[in-house]
Structures are given as C-alpha cells and as structure tokens.
Amino acid sequence: MLRFYSYLSLFLFINLVNAQANQVNFFEHKDWHIVCDNTLTCRAVGFGYQDPASGDNSSISILLVRKAGANQSMSGYVRTNDDEIEQLSDTPITVAVNNQAIGTVKMDDDPYELRPKQISSIISALKSNDKTVSFQQNNKTWRLSNAGFNAVMLKMDEVQGRIGTIGAIIKTGNRDESQVYPSIPAPIIKRAAVISPEQSQKLTLDEVIRRFPDFETHYKNEADCDFDLSKSAEDSDIPSFQLFALNKDNDLLAASCWFGAYNSGGVYWVIPKGTPANKNEIKFVTRNGTDYSNGEISEIHKSRGVGDCWSRTDWTWNGQQFLLSSDLTTGSCRGFAGGTWDLPYFVSEIE
What we know:
Layout: H1 2-23, E1 27-29, E2 32-36, E3 42-50, E4 59-66, E5 74-80, E6 93-97, E7 100-105, E8 112-113, H2 116-127, E9 133-137, E10 140-144, H3 149-159, E11 188-189, E12 200-203, H4 205-211, H5 215-222, E13 241-245, E14 250-259, E15 264-272, E16 283-289, E17 291-293, E18 296-302, E19 310-317, E20 322-329, E21 343-346, E22 349-350
Parallel strand pairs: 11-22
Antiparallel strand pairs: 1-2, 2-3, 3-4, 3-10, 4-5, 5-8, 6-7, 6-9, 9-10, 12-13, 13-14, 14-15, 15-16, 17-18, 18-19, 19-20, 20-21
C-alpha cells in the first residue's frame, strides 16, 4: 500500500508539472514581459529609455533567464537599438543603481552579458520604488523601467514553483527549494534523411487533384485557405502548388493559402507516393508555412510592418511525420529591428 501511494504521489507531481508547463504563455505588464518554454526555463524582458528631453529615442533592453529546478541562478544580458553603439564600441556601458556605478558590461559582443553581482543589484533595485537602474555610455543614459517588473517576476516564480521559497524573486519565504518544479527534459526528435539533392516540381490544380482527390475539401475545410479554387488557371489569384520528394514513400505538398498586409502563409500536407492517395493517409502540417528546406518546414511572420517583432515556428521530418521542433517570439514591438530577443515557447533536441 505504501508503494501504491508513493507511485500515486509521483504520478500527481508529474501531472502537476506538465499542467503547469501547458499553462505557460506570453505574459506582459507595462514595460516587462515573460515567456517560459516547455522545459520551464523562463525569460523575462524589460526596456529602458533615454530622457525625452535628450531628443534621442533609442532604447535599451535587458533579458533575465532562469532555468527551472533548485538553486538555479539568473543570467542577464543587455542590448540596445542605438545605431551609434558600434561607433562607440571602445567605450563600455556603465551599469548604475541610483547613479552609483556597479561595473560595466563588455562591449565585445552583442548581447552584452551582465555579471552575477550586477544582476543581483539590478533585481533588488527594480523591486523597489525608490531606486533607479541606468546604463550610461558617454553622453547617453538609458533608465531601465521597473513598471511591470514585479508582476512579471512573480509569474516566473509561480511557473517554476518558487513562491514561498528562499529562491523566489518576489514572494520569498523560508522553505528551501527542494520541492520547486524540476526542469522538464526537452523532447528528442530524430531527424530523418530526405532525398538529396532536393527534388521538387510545380503542379497544376488538376495534377494536385489526381494525386489528392479530396484536396479541395481539405483545402477549404481543414486548412481554411483564402484562395478560390474555382477560378481559372490563368487568374493570378489561383494558388501555386509545389511537390517535394521526402523519401521513397512520401512527398510533401505545398500550396499558397493566404496573404495579409505584410505576411503570407502556405499550407503543407504529407502525402504518400502513388495515385490517388487515400484521404486517411494525408497528414496536415500547417496553414502558416513560409518555407521548406531539407526536411524542415518553417513559418516566420512579423507582427507589424516595420519588422521589430517576429514569431517563428519549425517542424522537423522524422521519417513519418513533421513534428513541432521549435516555437518562439521576439517579444513585444519596441523598435528593435528584427526583434529584441528570441523567447521560445517550445524547444526540442534534434538528433
């Protein structure tokens, strides 16, 4: 009976951790946001700005990273979107709390890594309402905002099960960290070889239907695509179709699916070789794909036209199906070209 309850406790704990992981999402409050991935590693991002009177609207951003599990320290990085920063690479950025310097960050790489004592001082200052954190270089000073910091870091504590422990950032307690949530191993995907060099061909709608008789139904209902297949082949609004050889048994069918103001998406299915394919053998992957290469489908989209915030999702071929292998956002749109940081929702190990 004792063994039964031990197994039951272990089962309930594992399910609690898995449920916690499934609830993790993008959380934003004021000038801070956080993303925790499927391993329960959390990444919190904050922003800082120059005094508006300076006439310089460049920004600085800090990334704080903590893995799940007991006794995990925090890593910290800094990045600026100042175009002049490369011209000043010989001048370090000074980190200050209440205008008192606590050291510099190295200027020989981007992003610039903070030292542990600097991270500790920054966190302590941001938790307070009467301290300021700033980054200075020559005549430039960026003040790091603490608006939203406590709410975001409380979310990190919650996701990792640290509330009430000595390791919590916000709601610190007397409990040790022996019962905090452990890191969840990233899933392992065994990448399968695909036919090389890449073999692909363009298809007409009639050729697609010969290979995939239920294509029109799947295209309309399963993929919910925007194009009207009833239009003539000469019409520029007819979608394009491309077939990629995967292995001796399967091909990958790609079709344009939708267009937006500054994004587009393609729909992808794995279909067996031979004609015609049985509908039960058709495997839908995504309607948002933007590229396929060497056994990987990617979807890359920007959240607004200037391209300072992006999302990316990848699927990897394992010989039978495409499995989700990564999913990330670059965070909120704050004027950093190409996005500020890579913040994964989902990570995997590919072998």
